[in-house]
């Protein structure tokens, strides 16, 4: 059994969904970011980075979403964590793009103050919005020829995208121009596995 440290609405949502998809025996441990629980001495002992998610396994603690997804892929290779249609290198490349490009832009758009920005917050947010618009246009083009990131079935890349849309929608970001991205989001939102995972997240 593994334990995932997670906060409602945070990117730990991605790991919850993939644990659910893999039908892993897991427990959720609430670490509410809004309450500052990620900064407590107790949690910093688990994850000195002071972030979620953190996956507690028999062999140690795994932090960072891409690393957790790769761990799950290695442990449950028939669960569809990563697509069997592409190489692991390609999957890591795409995961890294989400983690190093899209994810930081979301932080700049939704919570620029977390980056230590004390002035020109509006400018920081506007610049992030501009870059996000460009990124979602490229995603829109990719999804125009296939229902999911790598073809006809969803995997971790689709869920990373799903979370980014979920997070930005809550912050008021407009996807008016991105019909295909929203269709992708709504398609996943109706999936029973994802519904079950989101219900568990809400109970944290």
Give a structural overview.
This protein is an alpha+beta fold. It contains 8 helices and 4 strands, in the order E-H-E-H-E-E-H-H-H-H-H-H. It has a 4-stranded mixed sheet, covered by helices on one side. The two termini are 18 Å apart. The mean pLDDT is 95.
Overall, the morphology is globular
Biggest pleated-sheet summary: 4 strands, mixed
- For the CA atoms, what is the radius of gyration? 17 Å
**N→C terminal distance:** 18 Å
Strand percentage:
5-15%
Strand order across the biggest sheet? 2-1-3-4
Number of helices: 8
User: Structural class, judged by helices and strands?
Assistant: alpha+beta
What percent of the residues sit in helical stretches (DSSP H or I)?
40-55%
Low-confidence stretches: none
* Average pLDDT: 95
Task: Encode the helix/strand succession as letters.
Answer: EHEHEEHHHHHH
Short structural summary:
By secondary structure, the protein is an alpha+beta fold. Helices cover 54% and strands 9% of the residues. Helix 6 crosses helix 7.
Task: Provide key terms for this protein.
single chain; 204 residues; alpha+beta; four-stranded mixed β-sheet; 9% strand
List the helices and strands and how they pair.
Blueprint: E1 2-6, H1 12-21, E2 26-30, H2 41-46, E3 54-57, E4 60-63, H3 65-75, H4 88-110, H5 121-143, H6 156-170, H7 179-189, H8 192-202
Parallel strand pairs: 1-2
Antiparallel strand pairs: 1-3, 3-4
Helix pairs in contact: 1-3, 1-6, 1-8, 4-5, 4-6, 5-7, 6-7
């Amino acid at each position: 059994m593994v334990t995932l440290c997670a906060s409602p609405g945070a990117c730990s949502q991605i790991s919850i969904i993939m644990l659910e998809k893999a039908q892993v025996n897991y427990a959720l441990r609430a670490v509410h970011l809004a309450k500052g629980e990620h900064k407590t001495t107790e949690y910093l002992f688990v994850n000195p980075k002071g972030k979620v998610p953190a996956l507690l396994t028999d062999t140690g603690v795994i932090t960072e979403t891409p690393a957790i997804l790769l761990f799950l892929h290695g442990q449950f290779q028939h669960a569809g964590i990563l697509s069997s249609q592409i190489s692991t290198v390609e999957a890591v490349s795409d995961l890294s793009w989400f983690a190093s490009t899209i994810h930081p832009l979301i932080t700049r758009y939704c919570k620029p103050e977390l980056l230590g920005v004390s002035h020109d917050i509006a400018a920081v947010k506007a610049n992030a919005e501009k870059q996000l618009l460009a990124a979602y246009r490229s995603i829109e083009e990719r999804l125009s020829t296939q229902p999911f990131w790598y073809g006809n079935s969803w995997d971790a890349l689709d869920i990373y995208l799903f979370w980014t849309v979920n997070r930005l929608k809550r912050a008021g970001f407009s996807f008016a121009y991105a019909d295909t991205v929203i269709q992708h989001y709504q398609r996943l939102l109706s999936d029973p596995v994802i519904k079950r995972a989101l219900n568990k997240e809400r109970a944290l």
